[in-house]
Amino acid sequence: MPRHKIQSDNQGVALLTALFAVIIISYLSVEISYEAGIEYRLAKNKIDEIKASYAAKSGAELSLLRVAIYKQVSAQFGEQIPNPKLLDMIWSFPFAWPPAVGEDASMGTKEEINTIREDTMQDAMWSTQILSESTKFDINDLNSPVESLQKAIREKLTTLLKNRLDKEDAWAERNRDLKVDEIVNNIIDWVDADSESLNGGDEGRNYQNVIPEGSDLALPPNRDFKTLEELHMVDGMTDDIYDVIAPVVTIYGVKGVNVNYAESDLLRAIDPQITEEIAGEIISRRKNPDTGPFKDLEDFEGFIKGIGVDTSTYNENKLPLRFKKEFNFRISSIGSFGNQTKEIVAIVFDITNAKAEITKLLEEQIKQGGDPDEDEDDPSQPRKPAPGNNPPKEDADKKDSFDKGRPTILYWKES
């Protein structure tokens, strides 16, 4: 074979080899670049998620501090402040980082805020809000011995669902088979003490398919809801129905009505004489800066008597009415960074003040009719002080007590 022919063949093979090598290298570089890009984005998203989570925790911790400050200031100076609602400003206004700057703010104000932002080195954003949890109905009061409170909560749930069916076509179409009375009865069956369904028959018949074979689990459990999410387990409950009910109910109620915080529906639960119009006048009186909230039961009864309520017959079920400061709060904190968002929801309780109020309610019940569980002839049981006696000095010293330090957290959820 001629020499130039062999040389030409070798050059062709070398060219093909080089082209093949270039293709392989190009493919590998593209693949490596793609994989590196994915890993980078995943890592960045994870970092953004962590930053958003810690931003939400920053807002939540600041809210806990505000609640703690409110309790301390209220305990030490509450009696000296004529309008207790002024103290609510410590916890009630929303707070966010970075601070919102209005368009009418001066250039100096904007530069000062920008300087503060740079000095903090906090590049994530968060917003937090504290709400009174006692403005909601306690769904466990569907089994309350106070019949008017039971009825009020039942009517509230029924009205909510029926209004949604009547006013939102898309929601009504998705829930066209919903029987409002039946789902409300199922919720009541969950907490009441008997095994007979309000819809007829045995309460457990519709739960047999969800209980594992051989399990001693009983549904419904005939006890209070332990979490609000437990509503999902009620027969017939859907996400649509839950999303309507959950925002207006709680399981962390105060077993009564705080007249200075309750909304119209809860005020109307006190007595049928309190109509929607009268409830509106009560709320207007609370918001009036000249009069402020109600100081006590005498102040409240004097006001409603003047607007047409017969105070000699109202509240026959003796629903406990509260007028003191709030001690039951819901904290919502949302943190965001990049394209990641995290939310923390917490429920905090002032155990000391809650215990003091419950003790006071029990003492009032004893004064009114005696304790049915107390055996007066049992010498082993300590005797309670007679009505009208001065409380022991150690109790008087606890008048301004409060939970010191970090507020007691009953519920904490991160999502």
Q: What's the SSE blueprint?
A:
Blueprint: H1 3-77, H2 85-92, E1 95-97, H3 107-120, E2 125-132, E3 137-138, H4 147-167, H5 169-174, H6 180-191, H7 239-245, E4 249-250, E5 257-258, H8 264-268, H9 276-287, H10 297-306, E6 321-322, E7 328-337, E8 340-349, H11 351-369, H12 393-396, E9 408-414
Parallel strand pairs: 3-4, 5-6
Antiparallel strand pairs: 1-2, 2-7, 7-8, 8-9
Helix pairs in contact: 1-2, 4-6
Structure description:
47% of the residues lie in helices and 11% in strands. With 415 residues, the protein is α/β, with parallel strands linked by helices. It has a 5-stranded antiparallel sheet with strand order 1-2-7-8-9. The longest helix has 75 residues, at 3-77. The radius of gyration is 32 Å and the shape is extended.
Features:
415 residues, 11% strand, 47% helix, single chain
Beta-strand percentage range: 5-15%
Radius of gyration over alpha carbons? Answer: 32 Å
| Spatial arrangement of strands, main beta sheet | 1-2-7-8-9
Low-pLDDT windows of residues:
370-399
Mean pLDDT: 80
Strand runs, count: 9
Q: Main beta sheet, described? A: 5 strands, antiparallel
The coarse silhouette is: extended
Share of helical residues: 40-55%
Order of helices and strands: HHEHEEHHHHEEHHHEEEHHE
Tally of alpha and pi helices: 12
Distance between the termini: 78 Å
Structural class: alpha/beta
